[in-house]
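Repro:
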Amino acid sequence: MRKWASWTLVWLTVGVLNAWSGPYSRVAVASGTEYLARVMDQYHEVFYVYEDFLSAGNHFTERGLMCNEGDEDSVPPMDEACTNSPRSGLNCIRCEFKANKSNWGGWFFLNGALPEKAKSAQLNWGEIPDAGHNLKGATRLTFWARGEEGGEKVKFFTLGIGRNPFNGKATAPHPDSARQVSSPYITLSKDWKQYSFRLQGVEMTNVLLGFAWQTKSTVNRHKNITFYLDDIAFDKPRTRDPRLLVSYETQNSNHEFDLVLRNVAYTYDNAIALMAFLAAGDTDRAKLLADALVYAQEHDRWYSDGRLRNAYQGGDLALPPGWRPNGKKGATRLPGWWDKAGGQWSEDRSMVGTSVGNMAWAGLALLACYETSGGGRYLSAAQKIGCWLERNCRDSRGNGGYTAGFEGWEPAAEKLTYKSTEHNIDLYVLFKRLHKITRNAEWLERAGHARRFVQSMWDARESKFWSGTGDDGITVFRDVVPVDVQAWALLALKEDSVPYWKGLAYADAWHRVGRGYDFNQDSDGVWFEGTAHMALAFLVNGQPAKRNSIVSFLKSEQDASGGVMAADRDALSTGFHQQDGTPWLYYKRLHVGATSWLVLAERSANPFWLGSRQDSALAMAKK
């Protein structure tokens, strides 16, 4: 807790932004690549202090209390997940102040710090070096505010931590780079209004305090007040920074999915998005995503062995300045959420783990970028991925192949001993392409090891691929027959896929739901990503009319933003379960992965071989 008083130093400018749309305006459906670009840029066009609860774009996430000694109850914790008429998005911040004689109080929005040996984040009042954001070039801080009833009086400020509020002189060894910039007390209305601080000429190279509010009993006639804040941001665009796309566009609901997945950028989804940008000719965005994957590989908070995690946070790649888990500066951010019941930040054991399939797709994306645009670091990163997979997941049980990866937290993540047909399909192509590029015979041998396992999973009696094995690595897992394995085998094996073409017919017969396809055989809904897989597989199979029909269907399902939902309904089953026993389900949410596969299907681009000499499914179909 911090006791604080503030003084008006710089006047605040006030304005209201209004947007007008004519009564007969009509919103056109954007393209899939436009949707992906919007998702990629959403947190980098400005530098958010607060965008939404648990938003990947938020900064200055630590809260410091200011109040009279012993009067902490007069300034309750803010509700940053408030859904009471937010200005935009899903949430706003609800703030309360309870009048008590002549008391005062408010909250700081601080960057804080996580020193090397600390177990949790700490408030930083200017004592910790190199722990502030460099916002050089920012000329304005804007925010929106409204009162519960109207007439509430509050003042707002930024900067000034570790400095004398009267003369601006440093009182701490590593203070904010400038003195406090403050408003007078503002009288709020019941309607949202935008306010802004002018920051021209203000030194912004070390910002510890992004935002703060303060009020007192006397200016509010000794009445309790409630007011709301939203969309607090510095005008600091960073669209050239490497970054990852948040996988799902979550909704305002009480469902765990919308809480846990709010800031998650799955590695697989971003690998497919990279390939979609390449297929669409946007090499600049593809290279930014490739750079992000390389950065994540080189800046893990614990590992330095070439692996990637299954997911990261969207928004900034790295933890903020001053946050150094295990002493690592610039460690890549991992996703998580605030567990209100437990009162702690939580992470998902699968997201922080490493799946073989996700690693393989990241490697394939890096190779696609390397073969399309060059860049030795992309090839090097893909080779590191391949070496890690060989060292840690090669298996000799049964028909060989590679195990599924690891799940859980460092330093003792749990090894997953089952083997997935899908994973080994991915590995076959990754190793095959590495051999074609490097001419290192070891990669060819590894490709053969993965392929032999895939071939062993073919069920000649019913003409389909099984999904893989149980934990013993030998017993065939027969409970689920996924549609993607049938399609991916054709895309991966290219001209060698002819013996397995009947698998596509099997999927068409047993997975079709209306004009789309389900993940498994229970026909409970349409899985749009898998439907796009089938479109490309039909093209390889020499059935362009079916491909065209499926693509037409997918385009009819696009949102006005250009995005595609993961499924056509909530809780679409897959038949699989997580390690903790919970079912693996898909939800009706806009999804980067599904949208990216539509882009690939539209352009007849086979992501397994994208960037190589035979990177087009259409070219293969005509061969």
